[in-house]
Amino acid sequence: MRIFFALATLASALLSTSCSQAQNDKGPDKGDKKKSKKESLENKLIGASIPGLKRVGSLAGSVSESSGLINAEQPGTFYTHGDAGNQPVLYKVDLKGKLLNEIKLSVPNKDWESVAKDNSGNIYVCDTGNNDNTRRDLVIYRLNPANPQQVGSIHFAYADQKEFPPSKKDRNFDCEASLWHDGKIYLFTKDRAQQRTSNVYAVSDQPGRHTAQLVASMSIPGEVTDANLSPDGHSLVLLGREEMFLYKGNSLEAMLKSTPNRVALPGAGQTEGVVFYGNSLIISTEQGALYQYTLQPNQ
Fold first, then answer.
1. Rounded (10°) CA dihedral 55, 77, 113, 226
2. Is the Cβ–Cβ distance between 178 and 170 less than 8 Å?
3. pLDDT 10s digits, 235-275
4. Do 165 and 171 meet the contact criterion of CB atoms below 8 Å apart?
5. Are 110 and 62 in contact, with CB atoms under 8 Å apart?
6. Cα–Cα distance, 238 to 70 (Å, whole number)
């Protein structure tokens, strides 16, 4: 605790010095320099207070409101996207956030909130944002980056949603997190009513009209914003706002019933995308930050 306060005091002192220097700078880029120094010091403080976390890149200027994250074809590259109000585009970026490619889809972005990937390289863009729990047009778009204009649509409804919207205490049909496993897309809801339960639904990964079946209810003290399954299938991460939950098990079914290891991410921002990357996790935020979190042996 003393070390943390010492780091915070040091960061505050350095930030104060940086601001004083910026005020004396009369050049045309004074504001940019001041902002850059402030962000650098804030990132150092975040890294110092959260063991294993470091900021590695920025999506600012290339991706607006990153809301999902998956590994792309080449190691160290990723696909991400914006949510409601942004273009229907998949952005390919590297670990530093540099824009490598854009794939514009011929489908709308009503509220893209998550993206998943199967073992054959197919991508599933989840237009499943449902803030008011009123949508009857929920859809997952299936495509392959090798032929992005051929898009299949997986239309679905939740098996247990009977009202649009339900009563306020039952509004748990918003989904910002997904993953692919064994021929199905698993959808993790964002509990806007109680902020304590993420319901997990499974739906076929084949285009057509389907019913998403409830397979589990997970106790989560917050709202789930993304999910990812490790390549070996033995680790699951659920991301929340400035926190994440890590699960271990021999199967996805077992992990959905297990007790997680919670990792707090104070100061990281509005964390919205997460993906396994070697022995670490890559995390994106709506504000444009890219973080790398090194998994500890007990995680």
1. -60
2. no
3. 999 999 999 999 999 999 999 999 999 999 999 999 999 99
4. yes
5. no
6. 14
